[in-house]
Amino acid sequence: MRKTVDTRICQVTVYEQQALITRRGVVQLTGEEQELVIAQLPVTLLEESIRLKSSKTNVGLLGVKTERTQDTKQESQELTVITQKIGQLDEKKRHSQDLITLLNLKRNFVKNLSSQYMERLTRSHNPEPLDLDKIKDLMSFVDQQYSDLSGEIAQQELEFRQLEKQLQILRGQQQQLATPRTNESVKVIVTLESSVVGELELEVS
Hints:
It is built from two helices and eight strands. The protein folds into two domains: 2-74 and 182-204; 76-178.
């Protein structure tokens, strides 16, 4: 029977070429355990450098071996959140594009308004006397409307570009999260000589 021992780093000693990391864990033994497993250790661990120490003198440690493991992990929860956010921003982007199109149509209409008015006057068979005040008011109205619409278009185009940048970043994150990541680690398997019941404190370095 195998049992996993949860360990934590309790000491780090740094040498010139390498570091000695000591982990300590406590496990409850039932007497049926034949092997103890210490998992999720770094792949830089050297099998020949492993040292074990037990808190119980009557526990014989017959041998130690290491195994490399690979875990494939996908961040599904974070991926769901980002996908939903992309959908919301896509909707905002479509709305912004529609608004820009509408504002451009309005601006073109206003731009052509004065020229259409003057063209109508010149083509009239019974031209009315020119009302300069009326023409001046019309030109002022056209200029003001054109300026206001141009400002709204510029603001919407800025928001549109910002949405595109946000979507580009989120789609990059989405692609990374959608690609399963393989994490490689090492586990140490300790073979016990005799069955022991009770609490065992184990150190590995």
